[in-house]
Design brief:
With about 140 residues, the protein is mainly alpha-helical. It has a domain of about 60 residues. It contains 3 helices and no strands. Helix 2 packs antiparallel against helix 3.
Length: about 140
């Protein structure tokens, strides 16, 4: 083999190595870029699933909050008994006392008298419950 052939052979080997090395490095870079893109896509799909779950939870919490607020409004409106209602109960109690006295005059009105007295006591108890509420509101 002549010197020119040996130099050509070395040049071919070095060229083949350079071409192989360039292809190898290009493949690594392409694989890395593809892997990064695939990882981002997976992460994005996981994130979008987490976002959907959080939005669903948010909707449930909003619905629960609205339901609780409705219960709260009903409870507040039910407890807004004031002085006018207390006076009404006291008037009812007075009329029940008069009815009990009227029924006691009849021989057959004893059961009605007992029922009327029991209703009067309940009305007075409810009126007594409303009175402290008025004092708390004034404080």
């Amino acid at each position: 083999m002549t010197a020119i052939q040996i130099c050509a052979l070395i040049g071919l080997i070095i060229g083949a190595v350079l071409i192989y090395w360039t292809g190898y490095r290009g493949g690594l870079i392409d694989g890395r870029v593809e892997g990064i893109d695939e990882g981002k896509a997976i992460q994005q799909s996981d994130s979008s699933e987490a976002i959907r779950n959080l939005e669903h939870s948010l909707l449930r919490v909003r619905a629960d909050r609205l339901q609780l607020f409705d219960h709260y409004e009903r409870a507040v409106s039910a407890t807004k008994l004031g002085e006018q209602e207390r006076q009404t109960l006291l008037d009812i109690a007075e009329k029940l006392r008069i009815a009990a006295e009227t029924f006691s005059a009849f021989r057959t009105g004893k059961k009605l008298e007992r029922d009327t007295c029991a209703l009067r006591d309940q009305a007075l108890a409810i009126a007594a419950l409303l009175e402290p509420a008025e004092l708390e509101d004034a404080a």
